[in-house]
Amino acid sequence: MKAPVCNFCLTNSILCINDQNKLDEGKISQLDIEVSRTLYKLQKKHKAIDALNVIKAEEVDSTLLVFVNPLRPLNFNEIKAINDDLKQIFGREVRIIEQNASKSRVIQELLLPIKIVAHSSVWLPDGSQIFKITVKSSEIKGLEKLIESMKNLAKSVLKTEIFIDIT
Ligand SMILES: [Zn+2]
Fold this sequence. Notes:
binds zinc ion; 6 strands; about 170 residues; alpha/beta; elongated; GMP Synthetase, Chain A, domain 3; Transcription elongation factor NusA; three-stranded mixed β-sheet
């Protein structure tokens, strides 16, 4: 696992001078450190954390977004399992997002556990583009609020209008 702070700072409750300076200069945040330390502790339970390069953590609309670059391909089950444990610890929705992934993959990571069954870009007559995703109505029962808030998150993360088609 790689993190915005060094190994010493991951395993101790104090910061080294280098990372303290980064924090003071605003290059990293307290949240980045907290999330990285938590992931570090969860490493034994989740093999996939070994393969994470943690870039930053951000709170958006009371959801904790953890941006990563994976060092190997991750599957959605692994990501969801980590999200679930982080949710328990931080007491709010948590989504691990692959910073350089395709739009459809980022949206899928936000929507977990709801599966996207199809996606496409749609050009509107005015020349703007929206991103359309399709989900099954049987999968979103009881998750209507989640899908709405994740759609708004996707909009702000990807800066794209998202249209959700329910079949
Ligand atoms: Zn350090």
